[in-house]
Amino acid sequence: MGSSSKKKKEKQKDFQKAKLKVGKTKAKPDNFTDTSFKAKSITLTQQSLTLTAPTTTTQFTHHVSLLGSKSDAQRRDALAHLTTHLTHSRPTGAPLPQPVSTLLPTLAPLLLDGSAGVRAQLVRLLRALPPRDVEDHVAPLLPFVRAGMTHLAADIRGTAVEVLAWLVAVAGRAVVGCAGGWIKTLNCFLSVLGWHTAESAKWSASRAAVGKSASAGRPVVRVLGVLAEFLAVGIGAEEEGAGRTAGAAVGAGTWEFPLAQVEAHMLPQTAQPYVYLNLFGQPRDEEGEMYETREDRFRVFAARFLKAVERGVESARQDGGEVGRASSAVSKVLKEALGYARGAGLEV
Amino acid sequence: MVKRKLGALEKVEADLPNLQHKIRRDPKSYIEDFRAQHYQYESHREIFMAAPASATDTGIISLRELIDFIAHVADCYPEITKDFPQQLMDILTQHHLILQAELREKIVGSLVLLRKKELLDSATLLQTLFPILISTPSKTLRALLFQKILMDLRSSNAKSTNHKLNRTMQTVLYNLVTSDRTSSKGLWAIKLTRELWKRQIWTDAKAVEVMKEASLATNEKVIVGGIRFFLGGDKEREEMEDESSDEEAIDMGRVKHIVGINKKTKKKARAVEKARATVKRRERKKNQPHPLNFSALHLLHDPQGYAESLFSKHLQSTKSKLNLDQKLLVLQLVTRLVGLHKLHIMHLYSYFQKYLTPRQPSVTSFLASLAQASHDLVPPDDLEPLVQKIANEFVSEASAAEVASAGLNAIREICARQPLAMNETLLQDLVMYRKSKDKGVVMAARGLLSLFRELNPEWLKRRDRGKEASMGLRSGDKKEKRFAEQAAGGIEGIELLEQWKEEERRKKRAEKGLASDAEDDDDEDEEDNWDAWNVEEDEDSDDSDGWIQVQSDAEIELSDSDDDDEDSKRPKKKAKSDEETAAETAAEATTEASKAQKELDQKLSLAATRILTPADLAKLQELRTEAAVNALAGVKGRQSASNRHHDDPLTAEEIEGLAALSAGKATREERIAHAKEGKTDRADHKSVTAKRKEKKDAQGKSTTNKEKARKKNFLMTLGKAKSKNKRSLVQTRAVLKAHQERAKRGGRRGNTGN
């Protein structure tokens, strides 16, 4: 009974006519579908068409911005474009479309890029940069190089060593003399070569290394070569005419008698002459300190690294083959440095 | 060309979790790898520190992952990572404003992890996290930090109380609250203290001191937080304790049974172990003596000074920015302090004068506060005008019934605490309201009447006094209490014990066939007592779960001359509470005093003549609880009110009282709801079968065939039933035969045996 009357009522409801009222919106029908939507932005897939071609400068800037792109290929292509622009299309002597100081911060993170193509292209681009400009921007670049040298992936370690080789060749004195450039980089070298402890330097040591081990085969040869270059710049015998002391020796003759060491009182010729005072940065510890003179560097080297390096070189020599030959370059630099130090009366 | 076989290690490129796993297993072999990763971290940190704001994920590995990795394996190489915690703390404290949210959280998590690995001590961790907690604008970080801080405090107090850490933390919170009274940063101190108070980690006076200072701040939120703690913190703590105590019980038998049946895996074995450990822990916890927890109100150092400053700062001063609700909270706290500690604040009662009108919003709260603030040391001169005002403003034929009943209730509550606030004429006037038409007013007036029947029946009219009170008056039992008169205390429930002993004695004598009220020889009884004493002691030495040794100078001292009369008169018992010590002194007094104090002596006769043995005390406890249960079960409403503990607050609801009765006729729904209120759920009264079925359903078991048949839709069975009628005789016979066969076999699936 009750249910049937209820059903009747429900049925009745379907046939009732909705009343329209003035000032009220019309009720939506039951089968109404809401098609409105909300979006933060609407993108129209149309290209902007302009008649004039973009200038080379704009193109350059555009490709610099593409360096942060998500896709590997795009980054690589952007780097390639920049390289060609730097090497070929630029008239010699003309300034870069963007200065090195703005380029380097975007380029440096690419050192740790996962894609091998990008990294190879990056090395090419770096080599194309004008050497004089790089010299002043070594300090911010070095942490990336060091991070690369200790990276878990062997390929990235290789790239980082390549970049370091380039840096040493282009701005050797800046590399070894900048803040943290000496001790920290040497630490990284030892870590790459696995020379830190007595056991790990032995050839019979269990090399339970994670990732592709870089301590065998060709990469080690390269690392040893770069290490030799690095040490040569840092503590090796100095070539004539390079560096401040040599310059002073040459310049001393040109000044007349009462004047001596005038250049010390002259305007400095480097870009950041007072950087060693570290007026605005974080306080540095021993590792992060700047070691500007050869004596300083040698003292630190003798105290912290000499033993490990000698041990490592010895074991590399015993390995023989290519590695042994490469180690001879290092030992030659070491010999030179030791000889110099003895001559200068330094404690060894 | 044959593909070179790759070792498992060579395949992975930059897999920090893999390295982490390997390091965990063999730290020595992987030290070079770890060193390399540590340099990697150092370089990344350098890069990050050069530009903290613009830190992006560089390459495959980010600083976040490196931090995570190093934090996880730091305990394997303490030499290399000795600076690591400090570096993390530096990053967090210097750059927490600009750090990426993920990195920030990772750093916090890593610090806590290092704390767990004991590479960092709690104090340092808290000193790093806490300043960030109060200064950071990020809500998520605050939530995270709060949780971590709380967790650290809990874990470092888990095994034993870490007093040193607690003290330093409390000092930090105290300084936070007191250093800047206008800022809302004190809220964090309040939140932390309240949480730790709730979990019974902080139960000392210093925590209360923090809250006290908070409630004297100038920031409204901080004030209210502090006040609310005092008003509700202890209740919250009790509830928390109850909650944790009635956690779901683990049925060990069931767990074992399940393991016996299911597949045996390591995981299940671990679950059984865990369950066993939990059961054991609970057992141990049950046997532990209950910790002494004083309520926050009792731990205050200077309640008088505190109440005064609260009153003058938040209520009296015109500069206070609190709104009415907040002021009411403060008032509640002040009056509760006054009532509890029997304080005297000069202007408190005159302050009430202004608010005692029926038009005042939430006036019942004011009335409750006033009642709370009255105690027997308040001069009646202070209270009398207030009582008079309530009577004039609230209680009249012209005012609404709810108002009148609220007024009467308030007067009753005040007089229960300070009877001298009432005078004879007013009382007789008010008692007349029990003839009112409204039920709520009648009840309230009756409450007042019965109160004064106990307190001072002389003020009532002769016909209102009732039987008991009149008899008491005649015998001189009921006398008016003078101002500040203190009743001599006794042992609570000692008369119950006496009564019970009397009954026992009677029973014994009845067994022996003697006259039940004849005098018993004392020696026998004495012997019994000593037996009880010894029995209990034996039990004590066996297991000491029932008894907690309370050391005090009122310990039992057994003299050599047991038979000596005087000695046996001397009360010796365990002094457990003030009441009992009070009783002791009172009992000593009785032995010395003259016969004038005979009544008192009667009351305390048992306590004065017997040494209460542990058995007696146990019985006493039992009788007390029994009496309490009986009182609860009793129908009388006002008994429950008088049973209220003096620590409990008086609420506005109690003042409103039975006003619901005078609110007119309730609707049907209201009546149903009211009727249902006290009743248990209908679901509790089910048949055994229904309950079993429910249990089965809950466990996800299947139904029997019988149940299926019973549940089957009627329409589905119709066809078969119809066709049954149409069967031929032969068919019927076949069916019956088949049925018989089946029954023999034991059902369709029965074991045929062949």
Supply the number of helical segments of chain B.
Answer: 37
**Low-pLDDT ranges of chain B:** 6-12, 535-544, 552-580, 589-596, 635-641
Fraction of helical residues of chain A:
55-70%
Shape category of chain B:
extended
**Low-confidence runs of chain A (pLDDT<50, min 5 residues)?**
206-215, 240-252
Q: Your description of this structure?
A:
The complex is a heterodimer of chains A (348) and B (754). Chain A has 348 residues and is mostly helical. Chain A folds into two domains: 57-129, Leucine-rich Repeat Variant, CATH 1.25.10; 130-344, no CATH class. Helix content of chain A is 56%, strand content 0%. Chain A has helices at residues 2-15, 56-65, 72-89, 100-107, 116-128, 131-134, 138-149, 154-177, 183-193, 198-201, 218-235, 243-252, 294-304, 306-319, 321-344. In chain A, helix 9 packs antiparallel against helix 11 (218-235) and helix 14 (306-319) packs antiparallel against helix 15 (321-344). Chain A is elongated. The termini of chain A are far apart. With 754 residues, chain B is mostly helical. Among the domains of chain B are: 7-120; 138-243; 349-477; 573-619, no CATH class; 717-748. Helix content of chain B is 63%, strand content 0%. Chain B is built from 37 helices and no strands. The longest helix of chain B has 26 residues, at 220-245. Chain B is extended and about 100 Å long. Residues 6-12, 535-544, 552-580, 589-596 and 635-641 of chain B have low confidence and may be disordered. Chains A and B meet through helix 7 and helix 9 of A and helix 2 and helix 3 of B. Chain B: Residues 69-437 form the SDA1 N-terminal domain. Chain B: Residues 535-596, 633-652, 664-754 are annotated as: Disordered.
